[in-house]
Amino acid sequence: MNPSVTGRIHSIESFGTLDGPGIRYVLFFQGCPLRCLYCHNPDARGESGGTVMTAGEVMTDILTYRAFIARGGVTLSGGEPLLQPAFTGEVLDGCREHRLHSALDTSGAVPLAHAAPVIDRADLVLLDIKALEDDLCEPLTGSSSANTLATLEYCEATRKAVWIRHVLVPGYTLDRMRLERLADYLLRFGCIRKTELLPFHKMGEYKWKSLGCSYALTDTPPPTDAQMNEARAIFRQRGLTP
């Protein structure tokens, strides 16, 4: 590990329970190549914001929580950590040196030429598939799904453990036919250990307003419990674990 490599951090959660197995230290990176309509951290999108830290400073802070995260680990999230591959790789190396489980939470939107060497250093990849088809992914995120799907293929080829995440947005991804196609697509990947279907929420809407940005989903309601249960049943029927 090179402790002097620097990166930009948006925020830190020292007691996370939703981003990987166990209790986790979650490091949110600054900068993201996507422009998701439902982004709950729009202030993390710009690559010039955040706080500059060295990998050594990050590891020093992580180790102060070692007793709490010993059975969980560290999750690198964002923003998009793969936009800062050198820094992300050094933090992952630090986790490995200190025998802390590491998870890389990514949209997979960064091309594999930059992402693959970093993915190789993580214990687990939390891969957020925004949408399978480009006719939905592009209006929803501003980008194609090609790099994300290539990331999943790479994880399959290298036998990297993956948790799939997919946000259910009414009027967009909360669609039975699209969910069936996604579930069928995922069936052939042996690297997938878990599938998480997550309900759309508007907890970050106030951030859009504070930044002076228009929020396109103001009138979009969160999914109902019945809708979430129906979506999860589609995956369970195929042997996937939502």
CATH class: Alpha Beta
Task: Please estimate the helix content.
Answer: 25-40%
Work out the strand percent: 15-25%
Q: Could you give the distance between the termini? A: 36 Å
Output the CATH homologous superfamily: Aldolase class I
Radius of gyration: 17 Å
The general outline is: globular
CATH topology: TIM Barrel
* Number of separate domains: 1
Q: What structural category characterises the helix and strand content?
A: alpha/beta
Strand arrangement across the biggest beta sheet: 3-1-2-4-5-6-7-8
Low-confidence stretches: none
**Tally of extended strands?**
8
Instruction: Give the H and E element order.
Output: EEEHHEHEHEHHEHEHH
The assigned CATH architecture is Alpha-Beta Barrel
On the 0 to 100 scale, the average pLDDT is 95
Q: Which sheet architecture does the biggest sheet show?
A: 8 strands, mixed
Per DSSP, the total helix count is: 9
Write up what this structure looks like:
By secondary structure, the protein is of the alpha/beta class. The protein has one domain (6-236): TIM Barrel. It contains nine helices and eight strands. The chain has helices spanning 55-63, 66-69, 85-97, 112-119, 134-141, 146-158, 176-186, 205-210, 225-236, and strands at 6-16, 24-29, 51-54, 73-77, 102-106, 124-128, 162-168, 192-199. It has an eight-stranded mixed sheet. A hairpin with a 7-residue loop joins strand 1 and strand 2 (24-29). Helix 1 runs parallel beside helix 3 (85-97), helix 3 (85-97) packs parallel to helix 4 and helix 4 runs parallel beside helix 6. The protein is globular. The N and C termini lie far apart (36 Å). The model has no long low-confidence stretch (mean pLDDT 95).
